[in-house]
Amino acid sequence: MPELPEVETVRRGLLPRLVDRKIVRLQQRRRDLRVPLPQRFASRVEGRTVLGIDRRAKYLLIRLDDGQTLIVHLGMSGRMTLHDARSAAQHPLERHDHVVFEIEDGWQVRFNDARRFGLMLLARSETVADHKLFKDLGPEPLDPAFDGPALAGRLEGRRTSIKAALLDQRTLVGIGNIYACEALFLAGISPRRSAHTVQGERADRLIAALKQVLLRSIDDGGSTLRDHVQPGGELGYFQTRFNVYDRAGAVCPTRGCGHAVKRLVQSGRSTFYCTRCQR
Ligand SMILES: [Zn+2]
What is the pLDDT of residue 77? Predict the structure, then answer.
């Protein structure tokens, strides 16, 4: 499933191809993804110029020049592929390429989603912040204003585990299972610790670790973009090396620790951590 760094990498990959460019044609190859695609989708998007692409949580917000915003979520399996005219000719449309944006300079953006949990909606740009998808969401972890005291404030009084609180999009957005495990490891905080006890210096360490794991992963994605000559022009998927995630039984990477990484199930999700380094 695409996580925040993947979505951010897709955004950065689309920027140079879409911004200040006109969408000349939209091919809609089915009526719905998770929900129906917008009514009269093609006629509402064709001829529009893209003003900018923002991201909120794991949603891409593609702002058009007529005051509409196209809200895109990649769901579980959504992928964006980018093709110039030659690449488009070499790569015929695939079965799950559901929406194809043709850009004025001949580039194509294809949205492929085998499992169809993705979403595309059109909304008036000025109403997006209050849209039901966004109004209950917590802050962005990479917002410089979201610091230790701000995180501590959102954890105050919370009796769930810190791991569960991090996955809750009302605490903060965009922290999936992988990044929660990795950040708790870097911060030396046990995933089982009660969320309300993560205050003061501990909260400072945790927010720094969250930002660090996300930024490192976005950097890894950026390096795949720089040489994104891979066939198919796929954006946004890449391999990052993890310290504890999915490494049960491996030796803890902390020098001198020597303990094995443990796996634990919390609210149905696997947690990976070191019982010695994380308290
Ligand atoms: Zn350890």
Answer: 86
